[in-house]
Amino acid sequence: MYKFKIDNIIFDLDGTLIDSAGDIIHCLKKAYFSIPEYSNVEISSAFIGPPLNELIKKITPDITEEQTQIVTKEFRNCYDNSSFSKTILNDGVYKLIQDLKHLNIKIFIATNKPILVTKKILTNLKIDVFDDVVSLDALAGKKMNKTEMISYIIKKWNLHMDTTLMVGDDASDIIAAHNNDMSAVAILDGYGNANTINEAKPLYVLNSINDFNNLLTKYKRNIQ
Predict the structure, then answer these.
(1) Which pLDDT value is given to residue 219?
(2) pLDDT category of residue 3 using cuts at 50, 70 and 90
(3) Residue pLDDT, tens place only, 180-205
(4) pLDDT digits (tens, 9 = 90+) for 127-164
(5) Which residues contact 130 (CB under 8 A, 6 or more apart)?
(6) What is the DSSP string of the chain?
(7) Which of 23, 62, 145, 188 suits 90 as a labelling partner, its CA being 20 to 30 A distant?
(8) Which of 31, 56, 79 is the last residue in one of the domains?
(9) Range with the lowest mean pLDDT among 49-63, 117-131, 142-156, 163-177?
(10) Is residue 154 located within the same domain as residue 47?
């Protein structure tokens, strides 16, 4: 294992720690149903990950701005009031969080979800134990991208980049980490594309969070 001290880990949420595709797809289909020409649009988990506006453009590239606003409103009405019964914890995440807490490693989340939704999901899944959770709407009047979220966490907590690691399932997570002079680990069983992930040059490319657990076990041996 690459030898460096890990004091802090910033996690992406969707696809990395949780599988929220079921609830997102359900609400997207319901939202698109309000626009007749898109009522039968095909939506798969491969689309999940980007902020909502980007997600809508990805699913329906020719959609108008007015239609985008309708889909956005209908989706938010559905998703923000969801019970999130279809959102599940990825295998190995609970153990990973316990191990990181035991090692006194600070853990953070940077997510494209709104903060109220994020906190509700973390509470439902019994993993509301992160040192901080930063969402795209963490700053009033401004929507942050992933690079800005990571920068916000670094500045707020006075983190050192050489002892901080980003873990995500998409090339955008890796790029955002590199934009902040941080190393990043990619998880392949999320929503990201393996080719674009590899092109972003993460420190490690792992199949799953369970593989990250195995990496952490090696790290624990190195520091004992």
Answers:
(1) 63
(2) low
(3) 999 999 999 999 899 999 999 999 99
(4) 999 999 999 998 888 889 999 999 999 999 999 999 99
(5) 11, 107, 108, 109, 122
(6) -------EEEE--BTTTEE-HHHHHHHHHHHHTTSGGGTT----GGG-SS-HHHHHHHH-TT--HHHHHHHHHHHHHHHTT---TT-EEPTTHHHHHHHHHHTT-EEEEEESS-HHHHHHHHHHTT----SEEEETTSBTTB---HHHHHHHHHHHHT--GGGEEEEESSHHHHHHHHHTT-EEEEETTSSS-HHHHHHT--SEEESSHHHHHHHHHHHHHHH-
(7) 145
(8) 79
(9) 49-63
(10) no
At which of 58, 79, 100 does a domain end? Answer: 79
